[in-house]
């Protein structure tokens, strides 16, 4: 591994309105805490394991990406833990880590200057499931008032805002895996519109049995029992993905605001675009390629200036093939290194794209591409330069993060080393 680039202070001429990331917080199946996750990822440590949350006798799914050893009361008072779902617990924890990493006290930000933009696709499924169980076993009087809000996709945005008195613009984005990038893009918009800072990202807690049953009909889950072979994107043996929980939260500011308080910068959010696929069977092509090209144009970068792609990597043969072909159309076959470190943790849905963005920023910091595990080499119809087996040292200036959501959502995000290399 090459030595990490130092992050010099922002000079006055670099103190622009460009949105930058000043804080990262991670809760993932192979590591809680940003550096613990990064160390595990570079080591190829698997966070996919047999389900321990409930009895799987008769249940078709066997392995998932579980966060182990997470204690929500380390980040929330007990009464708030009771009032909220696990997706919110994970997000609150990641937010606390990101704020600490940024060295930013929300109380120091103007009252209406701190925005919150999160993503969710599953919502608070576990909270809702428990309430339904109480309804049928104990009656309606046993259903608490928080059933009305804890399950909702926007609950995490609201709880983060309440906990930290963040009264700026608030939003939630529901586009499955793509939603994590959409939330980061929304935070970018709020900064450009005048917000002083933003917390953004996504977390999911989709491992409740009711939530898992709802995921089975799409046919994209791998129902095998071997954790090492359960999620092998771009491989000829790819047979779906496994769901996972967790994600990442980021603190974003403008370069000017970061300069004013002497903050360190992880990288810049340089470009973004989103598209939606046409209905199947109408003869029009998918639009992932267009999303990538629009994101590069927004970042004012040529394809040759992208040094690594963090792939969506859905883990199905047809889905991986379509993504590989889109990447080949933009960058040329085998034209840019591609990686999918989510192979170690599972597909975290809205949390996955946010985690990929955090991972891309860490890769820029340390000038190394994390590996895709479980894949010896990509299938012949997936013309990508897949980084496998071990980390690959590389000169990294800019990275592309790609995310697709079930149903036709496509998003692409470009992150860049700051200051520019």
TrEMBL record:
Note the InterPro entries from the entry. Beta-ketoacyl_synthase (IPR000794), Ketoacyl_synth_C (IPR014031), Ketoacyl_synth_N (IPR014030), PKS_Beta-ketoAc_synthase_dom (IPR020841), Thiolase-like (IPR016039)
Domain (Ketosynthase family 3 (KS3)) spans 16-417
This protein's UniProt keywords:
Acyltransferase, Transferase
Output the Pfam families linked to this UniProt entry: ketoacyl-synt (PF00109), Ketoacyl-synt_C (PF02801)
For this UniProt entry, the molecular function terms from Gene Ontology, in alphabetical order, are: 3-oxoacyl-[acyl-carrier-protein] synthase activity
Q: Which GO terms describe its biological process?
A: fatty acid biosynthetic process
Similarity comment text for this entry: Belongs to the thiolase-like superfamily. Beta-ketoacyl-ACP synthases family.
Name by which UniProt lists this protein: Ketosynthase chain-length factor
Organism placement in taxonomy: Bacteria, Bacillati, Actinomycetota, Actinomycetes, Kitasatosporales
């Amino acid at each position: 591994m090459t030595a990490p680039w130092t992050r010099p202070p922002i000079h006055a001429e670099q103190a622009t309105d460009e949105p930058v990331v000043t804080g990262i917080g991670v809760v993932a199946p192979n590591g809680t805490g940003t550096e613990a996750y990064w160390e595990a990822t570079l080591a190829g440590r698997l966070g996919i394991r047999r389900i321990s949350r409930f009895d799987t006798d008769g249940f078709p799914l066997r392995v998932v990406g579980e966060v182990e050893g997470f204690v929500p009361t380390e980040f929330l008072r007990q009464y708030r833990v009771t009032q909220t779902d696990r997706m919110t617990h994970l997000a609150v924890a990641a937010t606390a880590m990101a704020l600490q990493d940024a060295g930013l006290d929300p109380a120091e930000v103007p009252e209406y200057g701190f925005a919150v933009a999160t993503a969710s696709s599953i919502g608070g499924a576990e909270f809702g499931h428990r309430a339904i169980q109480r309804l049928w076993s104990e009656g309606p009087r046993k259903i608490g008032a928080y059933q009305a809000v804890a399950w909702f996709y926007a609950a995490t945005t609201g709880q983060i805002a309440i906990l930290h008195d963040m009264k700026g613009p608030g939003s939630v984005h529901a586009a499955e895996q793509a939603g994590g990038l959409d939330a980061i893009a929304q935070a970018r918009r709020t900064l450009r519109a005048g917000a002083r800072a933003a917390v953004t990202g996504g977390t999911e807690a989709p491992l409740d049995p009711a939530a898992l049953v709802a995921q089975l009909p799409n046919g994209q889950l791998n129902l095998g029992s071997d954790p090492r072979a359960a999620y092998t994107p771009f491989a000829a043996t790819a047979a779906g993905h496994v769901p996972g929980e967790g994600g990442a939260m980021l603190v974003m500011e403008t370069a000017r605001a970061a300069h004013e308080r002497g903050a360190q910068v992880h990288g810049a959010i340089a470009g973004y675009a989103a598209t939606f696929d046409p209905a199947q069977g109408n003869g029009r092509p998918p639009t992932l390629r267009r999303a990538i090209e629009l994101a590069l144009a927004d970042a004012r970068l040529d394809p040759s200036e992208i040094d690594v792609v963090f792939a969506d990597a859905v883990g199905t043969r047809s889905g991986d093939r379509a993504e590989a072909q889109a990447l080949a159309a933009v960058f040329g076959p085998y034209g840019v290194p591609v990686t999918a470190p989510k192979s170690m943790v599972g597909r975290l849905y809205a949390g996955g794209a946010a985690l990929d963005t955090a991972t891309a920023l860490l890769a820029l910091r340390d000038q190394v591409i994390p590996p895709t595990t479980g894949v010896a080499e990509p299938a012949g119809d997936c013309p990508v330069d897949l980084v496998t087996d071990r980390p690959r040292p590389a000169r990294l200036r800019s990275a592309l993060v790609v995310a697709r959501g079930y149903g036709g959502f496509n998003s692409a995000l470009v992150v860049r080393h700051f200051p520019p290399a």
